[in-house]
Amino acid sequence: MIDLTRAARQLALLLPFVLIAPNSAAQTAAAPADAVLAADLPPPSALQTGTETPWIYRGSDVPQDKEWLFGEMDNGLRYAVRNNRVPPGQVSIRIRIDAGSLYEEDAERGFAHLLEHLTFRESKYLGQAAAIPTWQRLGATFGSDTNAETSPTHTVYKLDLPNATPAALAESFKLLSGMIREPVLSAENLNAEVPIVLAEKRERGGAALRVAEETRKVLFAGQRLADRLPIGTDETLRGATAEAVEAFHERWYRPENTVIVVAGDVDATQLASLVERWFADWDVAGEATAAPNFGDPLPPSGAVPANPVGEVGVMVEPDLPRTMTYSIMRPWRPVDDTIEYNEGLLIDYLSQAIINRRLESKARAGGSYLYAQVQQDDVSRSADATFVSFAPLTDDWQAALADVRGVIADAVSAPPTQEEIDREMAEQEVAYASSVEQRSVMAGSQLADSIVGAVDIREAVAAPETVLQVFNGMRDQFTPANVLEHTRALFTGDVIRATYVTPAVGEADEAALRAALLAPVTADASARLEAKTISFDELPPIGEPGTVVAEGSLGLLGIERVQFANGVNAILWSNDAEPGRVALKVRFGAGYRAFGPDDAPYITLGETALISSGLGELGQEELDRISTGRKMGFDFTIGEGVFTFGAQTRSADLADQLYLFAAKLGMPRWDANPVIRAKAGARLTYESYATSPGGVLGRDLDYLLRNQEPRFKTPDPAAIEAATPEGFREVWEPILQQGPVEVLIFGEFDRDATVAALSRTFGALAPREPIAPAVAAKVSSFPEPTATPVVLRHRGDANQAAAAVAWPSGGGDANLRESRQLEILTDLFNNRLVDKMRERAGASYAPQVSSRWPVDVDSGGAITAVAQLRPEDVPVFFAAADAIARDLVENPATADELERVTEPLKQLISRASTGNTFWMFQVEGASQRPSRLQQVRSLLTDYTQTTPEAMQELARRYFGGRAGYRVAVIPEGQELVTSSAASTAAMTGR
Predict the structure, then answer these.
(1) Which pLDDT does position 38 carry in this prediction?
(2) Cβ distance 4 to 440 under 8 Å?
(3) Which of 19, 236, 288, 668 is deepest in the core (most CB within 10 A)?
(4) How far is the C-alpha of 907 from the C-alpha of 87, rounded, in Å?
(5) Chain-centre distance of CA 334, in angstroms?
């Protein structure tokens, strides 16, 4: 039916010529190989065609999404396949097993997730630890293109295969069939994988995991979900045997429990043939085991409807901010996924949106909580629950609870106004309409995931047109009376349960929490939003419209540059590659260079409060109201050398989106409440950093790698408390007036109308203040390495630590081509570090090596390796990183190593090049740095073509001249271990 637009496919084909890289994967992948597949495979026999109802639509009157083909084989395995050409050449495969942690017996806790790991370890067609390298050679990136997940209700294996040639696709199905059907569940593999799973569990541990575990125990008391986290327990994981894991596999890995979903750039019937080729003969002896009963949320013995409060829990975590959650619980039951049922869901969604907007309005006005939200959720087929979550600002949690309950009490006692309903309907409509507009460019991976999600909750799947049609067909049902009825149902249930997390001992106990939930509550109508219409037509002009003084092609694709008399430059590319989408970015000013040494608190506050402090006549509430029913955004980021506004919008809203951005620069507003609220949020966030080694690294590492420049320091609570709204304005007001402005607009829009809108907005701004030479010249320095690591301490679990080692690199666009080659070297380093730390030692679950090379400034880059591990393994990490760096300097990489890096990079670029944001990123800043355009032409070559000798020379340049700067984060009360036999083994590779 709907095909990828011509422009998007042309981009994929055009990339090699633009980047001077002939015979790229994008060219070969874009030519479908259905004929080759068809020659090798018989036609599928299990497709449900004609009048037969596809398995996912049984019991449903939801119109079928005809772009999907469904099949059900004799062995019970079900599948869904679809032709999709986004991105070109890719095929996304999902294999869902209907078995997660809720299917485990007590002695098997963690087995579903452990089996996921073992499935990748070794299988019928793959040797030990061969899965990841095999798919890397086929162009798939580990962790994003090749992955898996285990939830309470399922295990899903995921492969996004780029450059899906007939051979690569057939090989992938073969390998996946061997993994799912015949993993090698030996004692040897178990001994290798259990330490990795324990490392993953350790890295997820700490205060946050303790809270999650206790919250589950309280909210799902009496149910399997209460004590079955997918990660399992140390006892059951260490006690796992090959025989026990094999029994779990035989019990649940059966064709009747399996759904395979495939979406990609191959004819759907050929994809169905591949599924049947590799899975039709799958047969498991014996009868299928019925899924266990997950249980219902039942009130405690003796509870009565007038007193529905059941289990409650109070958790004291000194380094976590205050949070409270209470839930109204109902039993979950399977439903017939009918249109009537979905109409009810849409009203439920609108009801929640109204309450959430009221709760947010009260918080903005200076309420007793930082945030609050209500959300209905069908949790793991265990409960139909309405959750109420909020964060008290102070230790007076009773006042915050009373305020939140008051808003909800008003919602269940009196109907909303029609104006409130219309506002939320407008928001829903634009979301559904946008989905229809953008249907043709929805990635196959997203489409495959949508089927998996529908299967998990036992519901059907609907095309975007169907959702919009259902919504438009039920408009007369969105009445105040209907919304009130649904609201009351959402807050009615068999039992109420609650948890409260506090940093203070003695602040609350279970009796006080239960009493507060049972206390009478007064309905609070003060947060109801007044009926008030705001129109862009009523807003003042930004200034006299500007004139265009120069325009012309950039010489790349159809991208052009338009310059206005006030110095503003616009880079435009009108194309139909992504129907219904317009990507917009505004770059201005000097970024981090603009700040002084005492400005760190205002940098942090600006990231959250600058936009919400308003513009012109519009405060945050008015900004929300004026964008109702529009696809608009207002992202803000602070870069090394530039500030950025960003949004995804559509052609109909582009002119008004431009007004919002320009008005923030031309007539900013300085409301105090957003700053006060941002201060409260920053204080609460800071308190949680010390709970884990990862949090401490997030707080301090960037500051340390900038040689402790004050601008990059995370402000502590005292610094945040000293900040004021007046000081906020004093810092930010001149910053908004400084530096050149570049506006980038890429997507489906009318070129002439957009230039006219730019003239009225950015072209109408007053001339900008220049960036002072001292500011422009400001650079960051890299610290000198010390004889011993810099030691930081956390207050989390005693078995948790983290380590980082970094080397300086560079910045700017003069050496941009070298920075791309550095990405290859970084990925080589990363693969080796994963092999040493995870696969061999089991010391760290997910070590990572990354390269930062800022383009807008000429320095400040770094290559950084980071890992979370046990305290005793910190020297292992440092020894391994040093050994890898040294070996990269002394010995050339192998051809196979390079292929495992360059092929995924090639495929990543080829896929990304079909989207507008890819090209926007490549040319941004070109109005000030024209040399960037020349660098675009070598992009694919720079990232994907190299030699072992070139990598060795690069390693000598960045690793050979100096030792890395090392940081260790260990628990309070412990001393850093500086050497061990394990570190010697890591250095020697044994």
Answers:
(1) 54
(2) yes
(3) 19
(4) 10
(5) 29
Here the tokens at position 607 are 């990231």
Half-sphere exposure of 655 (CA within 13 A, CB side): 14
- Going by C-alpha positions, the residue among 803, 807, 851 that lies closest to residue 963 is 807
| Backbone dihedral angles phi then psi of residue 182, each to the nearest 5 degrees | -140, 65
Q: Which residues of 13-29 are buried (b: 16+ CB within 10 A; e: fewer)?
A: bbbbebbebeebbbbeb
Size (the chain), residues: 990
User: What tens digit of pLDDT does each residue of 181-215 get?
Assistant: 999 999 999 999 999 999 999 999 899 899 999 99
| The residue to which tokens 């900008």 are assigned | 768
Which residues, in sequence order, are CB contacts of 293 under 8 Å at separation 6+?
Answer: none
Q: Is 362 helix (H, G, I), strand (E, B) or coil?
A: helix
Helical spans, DSSP H, in 737-858: 751-760, 773-776, 816-834
d(C-alpha 101, C-alpha 123), whole Å: 22
Tally of CA atoms within 13 A in the half-sphere of 4 that contains its CB: 25
What does the alpha-carbon distance between residue 532 and residue 628 come to, in Å, rounded to a whole number?
A: 12
What integer pLDDT is reported at residue 961 of this predicted model? 79
Please give the DSSP secondary-structure letter assigned to residue 643: E
Residues 6+ apart with CB under 8 A from 627: none
CA 434 to CA 426: how far, in whole Å? 12
What residues contact 602, with CB distance under 8 A and at least 6 apart?
595, 723, 727, 728, 731, 732
CA distance 437 to 440: 8
Residue 613 CB contacts under 8 Å (≥ 6 apart), including other chains: 620, 668, 669, 670, 671, 674, 675, 728
SS3 string, 280-302, reads CCCCCCCCCCCCCCCCCCCCCCC
- Measured CA to CA, the distance from residue 838 to residue 202 in angstroms comes to 13
Task: Check residue 553 and give its pLDDT.
Answer: 96
Report the alpha-carbon angle 438-440-446, nearest 5. Answer: 80
Sheet holding 495-502, edge to edge: 309-316, 495-502, 323-330, 383-392, 369-379
Sign for the CA dihedral angle at 715, 717, 719, 723 comes to positive
Tell me which residue of 386, 32, 140 sits closest to 903, measured CA to CA: 140
* Strand-by-strand arrangement of the 582-588 sheet: 548-553, 560-564, 569-574, 741-747, 582-588, 643-649, 635-638
**CB 554, CB 934: distance < 8 Å:** no
DSSP E strands in 321-363: the ranges are 323-330
C-alpha span between 375 and 210 (Å, rounded):
23
pLDDT digits (tens, 9 = 90+) for 537-583: 999 999 999 999 999 999 999 999 999 999 999 999 999 999 999 99
Question: Tokens for 627?
Answer: 């964008």
* Phi, psi (degrees; rounded to nearest 5) at 808: -70, 150
Give residue 367's pLDDT: 86
* Among 830, 817, 847, CA closest to 944: 817
Q: By three-state DSSP, how is residue 253 classified?
A: coil
Are the C-beta atoms of 248 and 111 separated by less than 8 Å? yes
Helix, strand and coil in the chain, % to nearest 5:
45, 15, 35
For residue 659, give Cα distances in angstroms to 219, 539, 669, 971.
47, 10, 14, 50
**Higher local confidence (pLDDT), 531 or 231:** 231
Query: Beta-strand (E) ranges in 513-578?
Result: 548-553, 560-564, 569-574
- Report the alpha-carbon distance of residue 715 to residue 707 in Å, rounded: 16
- Rounded CA gap, 651 and 905, in Å? 33
Domains of the chain: 32-279 (3.30.830.10), 309-518 (3.30.830.10), 790-988 (3.30.830.10)
